[in-house]
Design a protein that fits this description.
The protein has about 180 residues and is of the alpha+beta class. The protein contains 4 helices and 5 strands, in the order αβαββββαα. The strands form 2 sheets. Strands 1-5-4 form a 3-stranded mixed β-sheet. The chain has a two-stranded antiparallel ribbon with strand order 2-3.
Amino acid sequence: MKRALLPLLLAAPLHAEVREQLDYRHYDAHLETHASLRQALNSASPIRLDSQTYHGFTRWQVEWRFWWREARDGRCRIERSSTQLQASITLPRLHGGDAQQQQRFARYLAALEEHELGHYRIGQAAAQAIDTALLALPEQADCKTLEQQANARAHATLQRHIEREHRYDRDTGHGETQGAWLDD
């Protein structure tokens, strides 16, 4: 009888939904001709973490929901999930400076944005992995256990991606190896 039920369970449609929202925020930096681009950005940046100043920052958050079906015997399984990624990237906007400084800023900004998009992609991977983990959770003896197991899996998946994000910053020197570096 288990063989007959397995194809039916595999054929049961699971519904997943991952939604994403990315917003850009900017802060203004003013640069006088012959001034230091790095100093102008440091002065203008609102991004301060652990007594450090950063020129760009990505914040992401993953939220998940799931719905289950309870069988007559009390066993429970997830039949639908919805995961949402909300993110924002904060970058500088430069005012002033000469043509050479503006050109240098444009190169720096492109590298900084690419670095920040790397953070966003980690958030995307986290949302997708959470959604996949929820739908892959096997049937549980009861719905309370299912809920606990699903949330524990989602939180563990989220934590792995947060750690991945920290490694990304360490490995890239917060974008330095990607060209997001000013030495003056």
